[in-house]
Amino acid sequence: MSYELIAGVDLGSNSFRLQVGRVVGDRIHPLDTLKEPVRLGSGLTREKMLDHGSQQRAIEALRRFGERLRGFAPETVRAVTTDAMRVARNARIILPQAEAALGFPIEIIGGREEARLIFIGAANALPVAAHRRLVVDIGGGSTELIIGEGTEPLLMESLFMGGISYRQRFFPEGRVDKKSFRAAGVSAAREIESMVADYQRCGWQEAVGSSGSAQEIAGVLESNELNPDAGSGISREGLARLRQLLIRAGSAEALKLKGLRGDRLPILPGAIAIMSAVFSELAIEHMTYSDGALPLGVLYDLLGRFEHHDTRDETVVEFKRRYQIERAQVVRVERTALTLLGQLITLDSPEHENDVHFLRWAVSLHEIGVSVAHTGFHKHGAYLVGNADMPGFSKRDQARLALLILGQRGKLQKLAAMPAGDPNWRLVFCLRLAVLAHRSRDDQPLPSWSVKESPVGFELAIPAAWLDACPMTAAALGDETQLWRRVGIKVQVSRLPGEMVAP
């Protein structure tokens, strides 16, 4: 599967960005960029609810993005949202409206996933280098720091501090003085100090700033020749000079400097305070700038999925290794689960590609909870998958994967909130049957099980001779039909006459 144009959408806490790129070989050439200063994070109330004004600004911006994306195939667009929607308690209410306005699904991603995508975007916009880079991205609600080589991140951290949140905490109404700036700097330093030792141990040869805040600071320093010898980028000395000018002016709005953009003035004091703490705590003397950030990282990650280099596959492989999941059992269960699913849908159909991926991942990680305790391992597994940092997976992806792992055994009432006809019921059915069939954990061949969907549930036909030879499994299947009936789904098990037939 290949496409000429792909698009990435970043719903940040300060700005929304849309980037359209043209795919040429294994590279993406940015073609069009739209930016809307939505200031979503400014609309977070003390109760962590997004207010009506911020919701309306978001919907209007997404409608404009949706117009630009009209005609794009669903698989060529990936939209992600970050800190503001991560913490908003009413995000689940707002998200469907936002998706309707944009015309595409929107993923809420975790802080470390945001950091991973930022590094990919920054690295791909810079010249190829053999040395390690430290990328610093100061957003409206969070700050990401990543060390990596090439386009591979090695160390990632997302800190709960950003230009908008620091304005609200330390610079209300935009007022800046020595006391407030010192308090903001101390707070940022405390956030950073716990990771300093690990980052210095890993090491880097070049510090890079990405996104709007770093671009704004670098631009002001260069335009006003605040760096030593009128150098480019961000220098420690230039940053100190800008800090003093800001304090002397009393607000960003009162600064009389070239290169200041009106839409970024509200978050500038917080961004400067955080950047100053980053320089101080990590002993940085100079930082260059990369035009690539989260939107470009989203595009390259999307391109990787087209080329069958899905980071989610790599994450699942790493989790299997880390939690010492028994490979042989995964192979057994996957073979049976996919055989059953293949009788219900066309496995190689683009329409069902996502379902097949999720069933494979769920099978691969269905015993991850055994690393915690065998009793209730499906519950432990669901918790681990739902809450771990899983590169490539959005929060929604992780929730879906956790649901499948939770549903592999036990009562089904825990899944009763799923609407009738949800494709996850089909995946849960196949996973449960496969797990049940391989409870003995041996390599004895199974007979050919025939399965199909009915208007009220599923119909399963199994050779009678095999059921007679496996009374424990036959009894378990009887119990299974009762569990499904309690959630209003009928599972009918029929006995096929004749000899057992291996698949």
Question: What's the short story on this structure?
Answer:
With 503 residues, this protein is of the alpha/beta class. The chain contains 18 helices and 14 strands.
CATH fold-level label of the largest domain:
Nucleotidyltransferase, domain 5
Identify the CATH class of the largest domain.
Answer: Alpha Beta
**Spatial gap, N to C terminus:** 31 Å
Query: What is the number of helices?
Result: 18
Number of domains: 3
Summed over residues and divided by their number, the pLDDT gives a mean of 92
Q: In one word, what is the shape?
A: elongated
Q: How would you describe the overall organization of this protein?
A:
- The protein has 503 residues and is an alpha/beta fold.
- It folds into three domains: 5-110 and 297-302, Nucleotidyltransferase, domain 5, CATH 3.30.420; 126-290, Exopolyphosphatase. Domain 2 (Nucleotidyltransferase, domain 5, 2-Layer Sandwich), CATH 3.30.420.150; 310-443, Hypothetical protein af1432, CATH 1.10.3210.10.
- The protein is 47% helix and 17% strand.
- The protein contains 18 helices and 14 strands.
- The protein has a six-stranded mixed beta sheet, sandwiched between helices. A five-stranded mixed beta sheet has the order 3-2-1-4-5, with helices on both faces. Strands 12-13-14 form a three-stranded mixed beta sheet.
- The protein is elongated and about 90 Å long.
